[in-house]
Predict the 3D structure of the following.
Amino acid sequence: MKTERKRPLFPVLACLSVLLAAAPQDDPRVEIVNLRRFTHTNFTRIVLDIGKLREYIPGELQAPGRIYVDVLQAKLNPILQGQSYPVEAEYISQVRISQKTSSTVRVVVDVEFPRILSYRVYHLFDPFRLVIDIYPRETNAPPSPTPPGKAPPPADKTQPPVKREVTPQDPSLVGTSMARQLGLGVRTVVIDPGHGGVDPGASGKSGLQEKTVNLDIALALRKLLKEKAGLDAILTRESDVDVPLENRTVIANQKRADLFVSIHSNAHRDRKRGGVETFFLNISPDPSVIALAASENATSSKRIGDMKTVLQKIVQNSKILESRDLAELIQKNLVKALSSDLPAIKNLGVKGGPFWVLIGGEMPSVLVEVSHLSNAKEEAKLKTKKYRELAAQGIYNGIMEYIRSLGKG
Ligand SMILES: [Zn+2]
């Protein structure tokens, strides 16, 4: 965390503009040309033909009632832009579709929530398409993928392995991630031991340096992932060398990693403060997170404020939901493991933060602050092989629980 060396901001910004400008030549967006609606006696189905596998994020708004889905890496055929379509159901007023950002298409269903029993957002394959089923309250039929009475439209005869069910009563499920929906496996994990070389990171009172602790934990974690789980585990550095922040996720992308875990040890002005916290990339309004990110980024807090709009664009396309899931499971398991050696260790929770090292990762990416070097008790523990191995074990358990959760749907 705390580092005396200030990295110049310019190369980071240059790198960002390359990221942002990289699109046009080979357009990765899929073009959406068709939206279909079917109103049956006891449900309404809206189908968005996408064609290629794409990540999507469902959500809802109350008053006015809206169910919406954002399809990422997509562009709308101009014929559909800004169009709205009536639906023959008194609980739905219309369906609208628009290009929300240059790479996100949004479908909005204007609904009257009090008249709706439930709804589901899911996908079907061959060709890939997104389906929104809405069940009105009036019907006695249970919300099932093939409601009795009417057959589903021919194109959708092969019913989905239904992997998600989102209802207005269960908003916690709205954020279920794509990786989880698809049950995608994990083969390669990139572990990033924070700092290194001329950048020591934080230092404890005894002189213990963050870069050394981080590398040790990362090496132990690699061993566990390889030997116990048979996964590919790759380090961004294997020794005390310099690796620029912006290169670390580039390494993960090149290796086609499924997960990216950056390992750090914390430092805080208040030496009494201690505990474990885990971050995923997001815009954070929390000043203490901004301060931590500033020191991890080796830049100023003000600069982070200046970059907010740039960050906003990047964050929109990042795997935030997946990263948050991974962060929560690592945090939970890490606290549990460390508390066997330091029972008073605090769980400071999972937070979003603007960490450069997480930018540009094409996979769920998190940054773990294992414990505080600035806290005398925790520094003493971080010196021991036992505590470092427990940290590796805790992070390992979190990664494994995340992988297991992907298969559950
Ligand atoms: Zn650090």
Observations:
- Residues 193 and 295 are 16 Å apart (CA to CA).
- Confidence is low (pLDDT under 50) at residues 2-24, 139-183.
- The pocket of zinc ion is lined by residues 1, 194-195, 201, 210, 264, 296 (CB under 6 Å).
- The radius of gyration is 23 Å.
